Amino acid sequence: xxxxxxxxxxxxxREIDIxxxxxxxxxxxxxxxYMDEKIAKFSFKHNHxxxxxxxxxxxxxxxxxxYRLSPIxxxxxxxxxxxxxxxxxxxxxxxxIIEILTKKFDLQIYHEIFEDVQKFKNxxxxxxxxxxxxxxIKKNQQESEKxxxxxxxxxxxxxxxxxDLDDLREYYNKEDISISDYIFYPSNxxxxxxxxxxxxxxxxxxxxxxxxxxxKLKNNIVYFxxxxxxxxxxxxxxxxxxTVEGTMKIPKKYSAxxxxxxxxxxxxxxIDSNLKVGINKITDY
Length: 285
Known about the structure:
Elements: E1 3-11, H1 18-28, E2 32-35, E3 40-43, E4 53-57, E5 73-83, H2 88-105, E6 108-110, H3 122-139, H4 141-144, E7 148-150, H5 152-171, E8 177-178, E9 182-186, E10 191-197, E11 203-206, E12 212-217, E13 220-225, H6 226-230, E14 238-239, E15 248-250, H7 252-265, E16 268-269, E17 282-284
Parallel strand pairs: 7-17, 8-11, 10-12
Antiparallel strand pairs: 1-5, 1-6, 2-3, 3-4, 4-5, 9-10, 11-15, 12-13, 13-16, 14-15
Helix pairs in contact: 2-3
């Protein structure tokens, strides 16, 4: 199974107010809520980080080895499902949500790798996840080939930028500026991590860890190697305050200079837009 499943227990009682749980996920955590006669499912949603994470409440226990656990802990028939292809940065965010849940409803946690039910311990969860993730990837090569693997540090910068993207747009909401999401294109030669400039006469933000630049011209997008121009534009770039390292800004007064440098010195890349992949197909190793 490609999910890391965390079960929730209470000490000496199974009592938990389901309505309060539902309202907590819906109103405080802004999760999507799905319910029928068999299951209540709370799904994580984010404008830019499209990694699956859900909490489920079921009519019966889903703990496979319940009999061997300490009898003072009672299963509340609630568990979290997290894909084993979730990157390190995202898994820490998901475990923060699990920690909030355990504190809010006085819950303990359990995974099959544990000897018994435990109080929430972030290091225990993170290390357990890494062990199971690495073993699963090695054993399931066919499924692993559907994903693209980045170095953890490189992916941290990308995911942190995406996590901050809405705040960044709010920060610059009164300025004429282009703030782009990432675009991801695998190819035989390299994996392209890029951004798109949609308006040519404005300031724009350059995300960290990119090697591809797309310029929107009428109905077409023209692609350039950002690695070739990066060193030539350092003098016209500004650091963006309050966000992840490597996020830069080209002020509006330099946008024309930037585009002229691009036209004069850099060849157009042939990028197959049909190969575009989503962020949820990218993980770390």
